[in-house]
Amino acid sequence: MTYLVKVVVSALLIVGITEATKRFGFWGSLLASLPLLSLISMLWIYIDTKDIQKISAFSIQVFWFVIPSLGLFASLPWLLSRYSFYAALIISIGVTITLYLAMLALFRLFHYNPLA
Q1: What is the pLDDT of residues 54-72, one digit of tens each?
Q2: HSE of 42 in the Cβ direction (CA atoms, 13 Å)?
Q3: Is 60:73 a contact under the CB 8 Å cutoff?
Q4: The pTM is what?
Q5: DSSP codes, 10-63
Q6: Long-range Cβ contact pairs of 30-37 (< 8 A, separation 24 or more)
Q7: Residue 92 banded pLDDT, cuts 50, 70, 90
Q8: Residue 37 confidence (pLDDT)
Q9: Is a pLDDT exceeding 90 seen at residue 88?
Q10: Residues with Cβ < 8 Å from 47, sequence gap 6 or more?
């Protein structure tokens, strides 16, 4: 599949979710919470490579990295009530990066190699 088709489909998905959120709040949030980006990525990987092992590894790696990414969604509402939008966003990104680093440290502690 051509690179341009991938970009257009992916961009349309982002724009669609953004517009749905502006108009219908809850439904846009529901769409954004779905693992659409991961599903599309798996589809592109399969179309390009037909490699089921690669998709399997991708799926389990995404699972583990979703956990620290929840830090953004948990911290941002609280931070927005105390700071400006950009400050809250930057701090919540910092929280998320910290949680990713903690997850990587846990991987090392338990001798889990997500690259294997």
Answers
A1: 999 889 888 988 999 999 9
A2: 15
A3: no
A4: 0.71
A5: HHHHHHHHHHHHHHHTHHHHHHHHS-HHHHHHHHHHHHHH--HHHHHHHHHHHH
A6: 35/62, 37/10, 37/13
A7: very high
A8: 81
A9: yes
A10: 1
